[in-house]
Task: inverse folding
């Protein structure tokens, strides 16, 4: 049946797959009504053979809202991490061509334009963090079937890494001049390699000062941190243990490093104290508070710890990160070969001894 008029508008009615379809066109023009009817039949026919209407692809600005919601769920309890991703997304959206672009139209050329717009304003490291954010957004969109593919996003070269390591003399001067709680926090970072946030989150229930289960050292327990590998036990040196004992005598809070209100100090508060002390001691700007952890891990590697041990102690997500702290020397290689040779000799001696014990004298 063709279109027909009911009141001032046209309706259409037809049969598709033995089912009656009847709809109002909401139009008073018969030509337009027939076009609407034909369009409806076409949509039904496409669905019959598996042809779906193309899905509208969201722009980066539109999908950014979903990305923020996902980050808040995925990183619940980590306000600094949430703030980091929010800040980087904001920077991306400030570039209008990128913000208004559908996700499937973000390509190398558009990314290059974005990099060019930022290159004269910020450091390479900052641009790389923004590119990493864009890459994470696009991978999430791909996982959610919003786009079919993700363009390859390369990080820029020339990023300056801050690998400052305190000398023992600088460490002595730093700790003597550091106010509390920076002095005690710095001592713990230098002796255990904890991240600053991990140290500030410690509670006294996470500290075991007495050695247990046949161990020689006390330990602390990191419940959570930057990644799932952050959950770990870390042994306490005598200096770290002494600091914790002295601190426990005066503590009135469940937190090891508590402010006047009994709550843990903020990372920003310790960072502020460190920057002021750095200026007073005229240390280089590369000496950030994270350098205390970096100093520990560098010394730990120099002491002979292998990459897998460093990974476990540091809570790294990958052994590749830990390998940067391994710097083999000729002397170290010789010591390794000596230990290898001694191990083999002991194994041979044990095997010979075991063989002798299994031999029985012949019966006469």
Result:
């Amino acid at each position: 049946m063709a279109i027909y008029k009911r009141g001032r508008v046209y309706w259409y009615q037809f049969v598709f797959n033995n089912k009656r379809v009847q709809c109002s066109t909401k139009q008073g023009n018969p030509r337009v009504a027939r076009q609407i009817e034909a369009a409806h039949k076409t949509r039904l026919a496409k669905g019959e053979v598996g042809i779906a209407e193309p899905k509208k692809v969201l722009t980066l600005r539109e999908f950014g809202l979903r990305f923020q919601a996902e980050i808040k769920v995925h990183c619940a309890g980590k306000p600094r991490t949430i703030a980091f991703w929010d800040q980087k997304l904001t920077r991306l959206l400030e570039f209008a061509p990128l913000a208004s672009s559908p996700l499937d139209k973000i390509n190398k050329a558009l990314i290059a334009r974005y990099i060019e717009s930022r290159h004269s304003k910020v450091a390479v490291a900052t641009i790389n963090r923004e590119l990493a954010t864009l890459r994470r957004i696009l991978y999430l969109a791909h996982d959610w079937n919003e786009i079919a593919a993700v363009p390859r996003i390369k990080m820029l070269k020339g990023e300056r890494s801050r690998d400052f390591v305190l000398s023992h003399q600088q460490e002595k001067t730093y700790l003597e001049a550091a106010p509390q709680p920076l002095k005690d926090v710095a001592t713990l970072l230098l002796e255990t390699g904890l991240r600053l946030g991990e140290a500030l989150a410690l509670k006294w229930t996470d500290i075991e000062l007495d050695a247990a289960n046949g161990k020689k050292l006390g330990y602390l327990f990191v419940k959570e941190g930057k990644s799932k590998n952050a959950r770990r036990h870390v042994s306490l040196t005598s200096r770290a243990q002494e600091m914790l004992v002295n601190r426990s005598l005066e503590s009135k809070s469940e937190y090891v490093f508590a402010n006047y209100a009994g709550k843990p100090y903020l990372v920003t508060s310790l960072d502020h104290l460190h920057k002021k002390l750095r200026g007073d001691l005229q240390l280089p700007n590369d000496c950030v508070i994270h350098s205390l952890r970096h100093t520990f891990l560098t010394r730990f590697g120099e002491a002979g710890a292998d990459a897998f041990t460093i990974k476990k102690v540091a809570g790294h997500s990958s052994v590749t990160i830990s390998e940067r702290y391994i710097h083999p020397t000729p002397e170290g290689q010789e010591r390794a070969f000596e230990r290898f040779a001694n191990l083999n000799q002991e194994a041979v001696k044990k095997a010979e001894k075991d063989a002798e014990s299994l031999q029985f004298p012949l019966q006469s």
Summary: Strands lie at 3-6, 9-16, 19-24, 207-208, 219-222, 232-235. The two ends are 116 Å apart (CA to CA). Residues 60-143 form one domain.
